């Protein structure tokens, strides 16, 4: 465990191998990769953790509510690239980047 990070974890919520490889190639440290953010995973997320993914708003809000940081994996995908696996090279071509969001439910 990294002494500077303490017990903080970086989670990557994805079921896409290309996204995992993209993060590795960018040198992004990830402690846990999970395919889905369900209640069991949410229970494990702690304040100060970082969660990377392309989460729906209600789940991103739950992450932020727990005091974790949400980094959205943003891509500018053309219609013909949607619905299929992307390589790390394609992700770069489509402007893959991590963007921090603070999400909360207003009701």
Which geometry do the CA atoms define?
A: globular
Strand order of the largest sheet: 2-1-3-4-5
- Please, how many helices? 4
- Helix and strand sequence: EHEHEHEHE
Our measurement of the CA-to-CA distance between the termini, rounded to an integer number of angstroms, reads 38 Å
Radius of gyration: 14 Å
> What's the pLDDT, averaged over the residues?
95
Got a strand count?
5
Low-confidence spans:
none
| Total of domains | 1
Description:
By secondary structure, the protein is of the alpha/beta class. The chain has one domain. It contains 4 helices and 5 strands. Strands 2-1-3-4-5 form a 5-stranded mixed sheet. Strand 1, helix 1 (17-25) and strand 2 (32-34) form a beta-alpha-beta unit. The longest helix is centred in the first third of the chain and has 9 residues, at 17-25. The relative contact order is 0.20. The model has no long low-confidence stretch (mean pLDDT 95).
Summarize this, please?
The protein has 107 residues and is α/β, with parallel strands linked by helices.
Layout of secondary structure:
Layout: E1 10-13, H1 17-25, E2 32-34, H2 39-44, E3 50-53, H3 57-65, E4 69-74, H4 88-93, E5 97-101
Parallel strand pairs: 1-2, 1-3, 3-4
Antiparallel strand pairs: 4-5
């Amino acid at each position: 465990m990294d002494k500077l990070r303490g017990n903080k974890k970086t989670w990557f919520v994805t079921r896409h191998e290309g996204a995992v490889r993209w993060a590795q190639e960018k040198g992004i440290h990830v402690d846990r990769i999970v395919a889905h953010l369900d209640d069991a995973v949410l229970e494990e997320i702690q304040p100060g953790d970082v969660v990377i993914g392309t989460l729906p708003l209600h789940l991103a809000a739950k992450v932020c509510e727990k005091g974790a940081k949400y980094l959205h994996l943003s891509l500018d995908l053309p219609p013909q690239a949607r619905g299929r696996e992307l390589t790390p090279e394609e992700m770069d071509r489509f402007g893959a980047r991590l963007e921090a969001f603070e999400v909360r439910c207003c009701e």
